[in-house]
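Q: I'm teaching a short session on how sequence maps to structure, and I want students to see two examples side by side rather than one. Could you give me a first protein with its sequence written out and its structure tokens following it? Keep the formatting plain so it prints cleanly on a handout.
A: Of course. Example one:
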Amino acid sequence: MHRAIPAVLITAAVFVVVWEFQPTPNATVAAPGVTTSQGGNLTVPGTAEATRWGTVQVEAVFSNGKLSDIEMLQTPRDRHATRAIPILRQEALQAQSADIDTVTGATVTSEAYARSLQAAIDAKRN
């Protein structure tokens, strides 16, 4: 009986560690080229960032050198991501950069969004 208690505690601890494990995204896929529309807008896709809930990829639109819009090319099918993406978009447009806060409950998606957006911004500069 005395051995059962430590065994249960160890099993519970292992379960918590496995449950909270967040793997590093599998891959970052390079973005295709930059395009210019007839209106002079520059459209730059970001990298596709793999997460355990799905892939996050943005497309940044620049008008007169400023970030004017951010569209989603790939969105994870997750309720937290669905809630977070409009907030991330608004913050990035307001900040005019990928230096944005994470959305509570969607940390992994927020970080992937910022990495994809930063890749688009960097591609625009090159």
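Q: Perfect. Now a second example for contrast.
A: Example two:
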Amino acid sequence: MAFTTRVLRFRLKDKHAKLLRELACEVNLVWNFVNELSMKVWERERRFLSGYDFHPFTKGAGKAGSKLHSQTIQAIGEEYAVRRKQACKMKLRWRVSSGARRSLGWIPFKASAIRLRNGQVVFADTALSLWDSYGLSQYEIGAGNFSEDARGRWYFNTTVRIEKTSKPATGGFERSVGIDLGLKEFAATSDARVITLNRHYRKLEKELAKAQRARKKARVRALHAKIKNSRKDQLHKLSTALVKEYGAIFIGNVNASALARTRMAKSVLDAGWSLFRTMLQYKSDCAGVWFDEVNEAYTTQTCSCCKRRTGPKGLQDLGIREWACLECGAYHHRDINAAVNILAAGRRRLAVGIPVLPAPCAAAVG
């Protein structure tokens, strides 16, 4: 039986915010300590400390008056080492506990530092109440963290193990689909569906600008949270529906981060392409659905019937939504044609498959 890891997020009751902020301040102190220590070791010895190298330097912090669990203090050092390596920097930003640029609260923990009791999470000898929307008691709690959002609300995030559904054989798909992401319409599928979603940022843009001009910071944070939650809700519903309907999903690898640095930044970020692909990936993995991102280069220009590049090209042809192939005469919807080409590319990759290493011969074994 195969298992996969999933992260569950629970909202904590607001009455625990004061305690969690105090613990977050201590987390910031430990973070800043290992940050400075890492820099000093680099200057003196020209080497970086790993997460485990920090343990001797933070040992005994709990006995010195810290309310943090010793496992939590170790988790801070290990997380710092991972983030520093990802950022490719010698030193990361300081975590600030107060002031205008206060860092949002964050408290990591290991599985041994937390337990369940009567529907509450016990951490640092304190029972924390939460809204349990997943039935947490049926899972084995793993490592995770407590995190604070911009509005001061706290969340309990934990990893759990769930049973993984095995994927079908490559020839046993009931239905497969190619998806082309866009800005005018959110997406088009290879079975000739055009999916339109609400643009939540555009919908509240004027109200948000009004609150920003009036310097109503609480209102601005609330509007941003509303936009974010509404976007996530509709993307969750769409991704869940697609995973339930299809046995294989192939999507174009459009570079959202690059487009977010252009004039189209607001529209790209409002669409949430990267979040949508992430949702499709982990939901497909749990449901046993094949998911793959394929190269979408020339999928718009290539006719899905004769494979000739007779379609609209360049920035000057972005407004052309429908076109007829000059070679075979087939009439195409721009995005649906791209989705059909994405599906064909995905099927070709599945047909090739993953090469199997040859078994060692008896002479080699002997």
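Q: What should students look for in example two?
A: Point them to this: The chain is about 40% helix and 20% strand. Also worth mentioning: Residues 322 and 333 are 5 Å apart (CA to CA).
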